[in-house]
User: Fold this.
Amino acid sequence: MRNVVDVLKDKQKRRVAIFASGAGSNAEAIIKFSLEHPDSTFRVVLIISNLATAKVHQVAERFGINSITINDKEYTDSQEYIKVLLQELSNSNIDVIVLAGYLRKVPAELVEKYDGRILNIHPALLPKYGGKGMYGMHVHKAVIESGEDESGITIHIVNSEYDKGEHLKQVRVNVLPTDTPEVLASRILAVEHSEYPLVINEFCSYK
Ligand code: GRF
Assistant:
């Protein structure tokens, strides 16, 4: 049984929903951080994916977190899709939305409702190598093909345009002459795992 102080502390934490489409390694790092730091300012209470097959569901299951699939492609009526998303977020009393490898544009209605409370991570130094179509390995390929000697991560607030919201943090990562997109991706991913939870934690201490 937890003591009263721990129960009360948990109640004060920001309730986070993670949106993810893929492996969910960032989701895992964020969940672990919140569990390993009793004084963390947030807890992950919901995972939403657009894909039923996304591995992030397994991550959620391992940690006993509710995870659901809401696939825009299954809705002929986009308003219905948005209604379902908003309803799920409201059912779980979500304060902050964290995008972690979410390959869908967040509908304008959500950006409006959670104005300034949606975060995203991008595996490059925005504004370079951002925008539509710039995701996953496409980003690292483009960085290497352009002969950049540095790349990195950008954590930013989501607004109505792809990868254009206010930056909260950037961390640089050297690109080595021997790097393949895969090797660079794995070095950048390790930085994402250590930095994203810290930024979310700081963000949730104010929001
Ligand atoms: C990360 O590189 C993130 O920056 C990008 O998508 C990738 C997601 O990886 N937006 P994972 O699903 O968290 O493992």
Remarks:
- Residues 181-206 form the longest helix (26 residues).
